[in-house]
DUF3298 domain-containing protein
Amino acid sequence: MTARILLPLLAMVLATPAAAQGTFTPPEGCTTFMTVQSKGCRVSNHFKCTADAPGDQWRTDFDQEGPFFSSRVNYEAEWVESYEIDPPVRQTLDPNPADPASFSDLLATGSDNYIFGLSDDTGERTRVRGADTLTGRVVVIDGIELQETAFNFTETDLAGNVLRRSRGNEYIHPEWRLFFSGPSQWDGGNGNFVPIDGSPLQFIFPGEPGFASTQPLFDCDAVLSSLPLPPKS
């Protein structure tokens, strides 16, 4: 099964009774390995699929109304493809980035700059330019040690008009090769930054209560999960 086929299949899987009852079941050939409950009324189920390249990882996000987003990153934490579930829109990383994002460089040097293009199946093409830097601060969340980063990125159309920008902090886990959201500011293209915080609060693993849950637990009176996410977290 190719990843191109996997996302539409994933949308169908999420519509099964199990998902409606609050349990995430990944597509055939895939295995869920972690559930993350976060601020902003979001729960994310992380999974891997045998048909993908080594190091590729998926996550599917749920808010209090159900699934709304899924994405795949590779070994370097590049945003390979994403899928907005309602309405369904698939976005992919353009080939031959000018400066590919590199999780390895971030770990080795403490910083990483990137410039890459994205295209979606509506015909929209955009360019993303940004940077990640390790702050040197280590935080412990639910017993998991994470390294803090400072980040900024700007996404423009091909004419250079700003579509969205974000800046703030994220967290990484070096062995998992994953980014997690943190406190940040978001500008949807109107020039006004607004604060958002999607920081993780619980990491849940197979056999633990709440594993594979599709029900977010935190901040669900303030629906922040509908805000777009930076193209790595």
